[in-house]
Design brief:
about 120 residues, alpha/beta, globular, 3 strands, Rossmann fold, three-stranded parallel beta sheet
C-alpha cells in the first residue's frame, strides 16, 4: 500500500488480513519509493492514496502503465472522491476508486472480486 497516514495504513492493514491470499503487505508513503518497489516486481495488488507525503498516486499509476508484463491490480483509496480524480485514475489504469470515508469495509470484497476476475 502507498499511504502517508500511519493511522489509515494500520487500519488498512487490518482490513487486508480478511483477504484470502494476501500474505505480505508493504507500506510505503512516497511516490518515488513506491515506483522503486514496483520496478522490483512480484506485486499483485497496490492500494494507492492520491495525495502522498512526496508525490501523488497519479504518478505511481503513470509508472504502472510503463511496466512490461503483468501489472498489479491498482486501487485508489483516497479522501478526495472527486469526479475528475476518479476519471483520471481510471484512465491511468486504476481498477477501482474507493473513498476512505465510506469504503473501508468494502476493501476485502473489492480485492477478492478483482483477484478472482484476473484468474
Amino acid at each position: 500500500m502507498v499511504e502517508d497516514s500511519p493511522i489509515v495504513a494500520e487500519r488498512l492493514r487490518e482490513c487486508l488480513k480478511e483477504v484470502p491470499g494476501i500474505t505480505h503487505v508493504d507500506t510505503l508513503n512516497r511516490e518515488a519509493t513506491a515506483i522503486e518497489r514496483l520496478l522490483r516486481g512480484d506485486i499483485d495488488v497496490i492500494i494507492l492514496d492520491l495525495h502522498l507525503e512526496r508525490g501523488t498516486g497519479f504518478g505511481v499509476l503513470r509508472s504502472l502503465k510503463a511496466l512490461d508484463g503483468r501489472r498489479p491490480l491498482a486501487i485508489i483509496f483516497t479522501n478526495y472522491d472527486l469526479p475528475e480524480y476518479r476519471r483520471q485514475a481510471l484512465a491511468l489504469g486504476a481498477h477501482d476508486f474507493l473513498d476512505k470515508a465510506r469504503d473501508f469495509e468494502r476493501i476485502p470484497t473489492v480485492l477478492s472480486d478483482l483477484r478472482a476476475q484476473r484468474c
